[in-house]
Design a protein that fits this description.
This protein is of the alpha/beta class. The chain is built from 10 helices and 7 strands. Helix 4 links the parallel strand 4 and strand 5. GO terms for molecular function: metal ion binding; methyltransferase activity.
Length: about 350
């Protein structure tokens, strides 16, 4: 899914990079960071898109000397940066050398471990900030999900849903407000004037009932866990005390928070939806059977990669195979009913 998300975002990314180069060249070195980069096979795809756009824009603007590009890959310290630098970067640089871009300076790549909810770089040091599918994850589970008497307020759920108490919705919104505002303030200090930022966030939409909270697939995980509680697989208290630190904002929330923080102008705020199983034909063997069960297993497999460590810390490793088998069946039924998409927000901003 991440590859499709980046592909859909590419025109906005290209536009932002072109604007950056138009206003901030000549410069000896452009410093660029990808926040929440992870360590999977698509980790370096945003870097490649930026390199291609830089080369074509410098050619179009007839710049005689292309700037050096210094990329920083940011994620939490627990991210597997070793995989990126040992397994992915050698092939990346080999491909870069073969392309022989005529308007491209030298490229350098470094890691910057740490939380993007706080400061990571010196003042006025960054030219371009990119983040894809990271900012909907909160810095912590919101406070206020337990009543004064000690009862869980989001009982039976692991995320926001139709049955969540209004105070739970407020707690999640308040935590996102705090985290996203902190993110904007930190980047405001680190970015130079007229620099650019492009963010892709999993969002919510009231126009599509299945994307009302932007977390339907986590609701299905919660439903699978509830079934296992009912069958006596583990205690109900384990489920009721677990909440995913995930909030999918609406476009209106994003616009309000950016305007209130005041450091950035929104150039574009686009919305689109992609199916849960969008890349199945590309990722599978050519002779694969793409019936609903295969699609359910495909979605369950990538959700396991996303969520397993979080779930294991609460429920233990022993139930994971059964949990994600149940999830694959639920996903298959949703896809058969035409339900199963994620709502995405792409925000392109300029530092004032």
């Amino acid at each position: 899914m991440e590859k499709q998300v980046i592909s859909k975002t590419r025109p906005i990314l290209e536009e932002a990079v072109a604007e950056l180069l138009h206003h901030n060249l000549p410069a000896d070195c452009l410093r660029i960071v990808d926040m929440g980069c992870s360590s999977g096979p698509n980790t370096l795809l945003p870097l490649w898109e930026i390199i291609e756009t830089t080369n074509s824009t410098c050619r179009r603007l007839n710049h005689q000397k292309a700037p050096a590009l210094q990329f920083f890959l940011n994620d939490l310290p627990g991210n597997d940066f070793n995989t990126v630098f040992r397994s992915l970067l050698p092939d990346f640089f080999d491909k870069l050398e073969k392309e022989k871009f005529d308007k491209l300076g030298p490229c350098f790549v470094a890691a910057m471990p740490g939380s993007f909810h706080g400061r990571l770089f010196p003042d006025n040091s960054l030219h371009f900030v990119h983040s894809s599918y990271s900012l909907h994850y909160l810095s912590q589970v919101p406070e206020g999900l337990i009543s004064e008497s000690g009862e869980p307020l989001n009982k039976g759920n692991i995320c926001l849903s139709e049955t969540s108490h209004p105070s739970v919705h407020k707690a999640y919104l308040d935590q996102f407000d705090k985290d996203f505002t902190s993110f904007l303030r930190s980047r405001s200090s680190e970015m130079i004037s007229r620099s650019r930022m492009v963010l892709t966030i999993m969002g919510s939409s009231y126009h599509n009932p299945s994307c009302k909270y932007g977390s339907q697939i986590f609701q299905l995980i919660g439903a699978s866990l509830k079934e296992m509680v009912d069958e006596g697989k583990f205690e109900e208290s384990l489920l009721d005390s677990f909440n995913v630190p995930l909030y999918c904002p609406s476009a209106e929330v994003i616009r309000e928070l950016v305007q209130r923080e005041g450091s950035f102008n929104i150039d574009r705020l686009e919305q689109y939806e992609i199916n849960w199983d969008v890349n199945i034909e590309e990722d599978a063997d050519k002779d694969s059977n793409f019936d609903k069960w295969a699609r359910g297993r495909y979605v369950s497999k990538y959700m396991r990669a996303v969520a397993e460590s979080m779930l294991t810390s609460q429920f233990g490793a022993a139930i994971m195979d059964q949990l994600f088998h149940r999830l694959s069946s639920k996903v298959a039924e949703c896809l058969e009913r035409g339900i199963g998409s994620r709502h995405n927000l792409v925000i392109s901003m300029a530092k004032k």
